[in-house]
Amino acid sequence: MSGRRVRLGVLVSGSGSNLQALLDACAREDFPAEVACVVSNVPTAYALERARAAGVATVVVDHKAHASKAEFEAAILDALRSAGVEWVCLAGFMRLLSADFLGRFAGRVLNIHPSLLPSFPGLHAQRQALERGVKVTGCTVHFVDAGTDTGPIIGQAAVPVLPDDDEKSLGARILAEEHRLYPLAVRLAVTGQVSSDGTRTRVSAVPTTSELSLRSPGAEK
Ligand code: GRF
């Protein structure tokens, strides 16, 4: 792609498979963004290895090494600013960000969550879905506000919950959709094709049907 690419900062805490999906998308010539920096609050996160393997700058900002949340967030902001980050993607980042931090990237922070929000926000979304007995669940990409998984929804993908599912099998089925949905949503958002009134979003470029996913039990083949 000719033209400037939007600089993403990706915040991680764990395995980083969604980071990998973003790195893979950014490696494609026609993708409008690049990962400028990966910040982890967990020094041992495997996501850091994925970033290094892709030649992306990494910064560890360990929340345990900072006396307050304000100092922790200031260190993250420093890292993002030094890397010239314009948009922030949370990808399995396990700390809540303050309204103050979010204000520094107003309307430019995205998150992915493994449920069809507003169902099952917070931790263990797959377990919550199994315990509640839903037959369809999925994943959501949304703008981040100061609540827990409450910001305006950009896109969702659904998967069936099968009778013998446990957290692992259901989580893997959802993750496969996450890896498709996140790059798609990032592309739409950073190219200005998603507007939000603070609650609802409108996507001006309708994705092709092959990019969308809506499945019901038994219909996934
Ligand atoms: C994903 O399920 C994501 O939706 C949630 O945390 C998990 C992170 O997985 N926010 P990974 O680190 O991207 O593999």
Supply the key terms:
alpha/beta; Rossmann fold; two-stranded antiparallel sheet; 9 strands; disordered C terminus; binds 5-O-phosphono-beta-D-ribofuranosylamine; Formyl_transf_N; purine biosynthesis
Small molecules bound in the structure, each named once: 5-O-phosphono-beta-D-ribofuranosylamine
Share in helix:
25-40%
- CATH topological fold name of the largest domain: Rossmann fold
Distance between the termini: 34 Å
Number of strands: 9
How many helices in DSSP terms?
6
Number of domains: 2
- Please summarize the sheet with the most strands: 7 strands, mixed
Order of helices and strands: EHEHEHEHEHEEHEE
Structural class: alpha/beta
What general form does the structure show?
globular
CATH class of the largest domain: Alpha Beta
Going by CATH, the homologous superfamily of the largest domain would be: Formyl transferase, N-terminal domain
Mean pLDDT: 93
What value does the Rg take, in angstroms?
Answer: 17 Å
CATH architecture of the largest domain: 3-Layer(aba) Sandwich
> What oligomeric assembly is this protein in?
single chain
Largest beta sheet: what is the strand line-up? Answer: 3-2-1-4-5-6-7
Q: How much of the sequence is in beta strands?
A: 15-25%
